[in-house]
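hey m, so remember when u said the tokens were messed up on ur end? i reran from scratch. heres the input so u can diff it against urs
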Amino acid sequence: MISCCSVHSPVSSHSCFAPLAKHSRCVLLRVSRITRFSSVISRTRASILTYSPPRINFAPHQTVAVDIRHLRDAQVADLSGNLIPQNMANGKVVWFEEDADSLIGRAEIINVAKGMSSSLSCYFPCNCSPNWIAPGTADNFTLPSALTFLPGGPGQLLSSRQTRYDCNNHSLGTFDVTSSSTFSSLNTSIVTNSANTYSPVGAGITYAKAQFNANHVSPPACPFIAQAAPQPPATVKPKISGNTTTLWWFNGLAPSGYTITTTLTATAPGATSYSWAVSQTGTKVTLGTNGQSTMVVTSAGWSSTSGDVSITLTVNSVTSSPYVLTVRGPKTLQADGAIDSCDSTYAYLSIVSYTIVDNLGSALPSVVPVNEKFVTSPQCGSSYPSCNWVIGPQIGWTTDPSAPSSFGDHIKGQASGYTPVAVGPSGCTTGVGTATVQSWGQDWRIGSTSVGVGLRVQGDSLQKYIDNARHKVIVTPDP
């Protein structure tokens, strides 16, 4: 069954009942000033289900029909997204007027098959004036929980919403009251507003204020009109700017093409002090002198994961969003194999190739200095205990721009006149000798062409055989 009840004064309500399975609608007629209404449909008087369509603005003497069955059958969502269940067959419709004695309304029930119709209304008592708020419930006001800005960033809109209740504590829906609100900022040196658009000015925290008429409870029973002024915090965060999010670490060296330090700049109008801080595990970066609008950040160690260094700035008790950095650097050598060839002077040439890989598993992007250092004296192998081959020089060089992360160790055999006599590889392609003629330890360092200077990435034993040479006992990274 359905009934249509007015909530405006205790002397002009009527009652009716009819099945919702028939064509049911609530018809309202404006008899005086501008009026809005909200409706509530429930299975019982306890409002098990609440359905609140939007407000309606009436022209003089305008009649509006709200088709309840259509709202149910078409599954039309209300202000809060609620739907009338399709199996709902009866309930109550409450219409609410914001200007007292401005509407009259009826429920119409039409049964086309039987050629019958009914027009009814019901009594819905309320003894307060204004009488469309529950005695125990004040109107609720909804604003964004907070506004956050960046200096020079875009403005934000603040909208205000109001949930209203009738005399029997039924919600009448939540309505946008932005157009009837007055907006302001409590500190225009931080945030200013034009109507409900708020814009950042200087770093700090203030409040955005929306003020509008609302109803509050006045003990013991009836409400009174008052000004509601909810105030969400409006925060303008300082902003950190920089020209890179990647630093490189070469253990104190600064090879060309790699950023070792960067200067971060604060944007914080109205700031009187600056407090920079870093969040990191271990020491991946160091900060320069604090208390200024700029900060020099210098690499000090590898990142464990991408973006694991966060720099923040606090100004006027407000902390910026983190400026995230990653520290990369050469860490390992990836073996790319070896090739052998004949040499007219030294019998053979073996090239042992590598790719320089950083701490996060990527090849280095730019040319980089490389050097080798011999760390032990040469020792003859057991097959050639009387060897007298000559060790070549320790050298450094810069990788080729065409393959900036790659290099090869060019190892030659030995010229004639030394013991044993070096031979060319079989077919001048691949050495097959396995008896060691001579071996010694060597380190590989990245970041400088000066021997023994730079970030050590590998230790190995350089072993020369009768017809080829290889790196053995490889340790990478090292350390």
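this time it looks ok to me. Residues 6-19, 32-47, 129-138, 216-226 have pLDDT under 50 and may be disordered. if urs says something different then somethings off w ur setup not the seq
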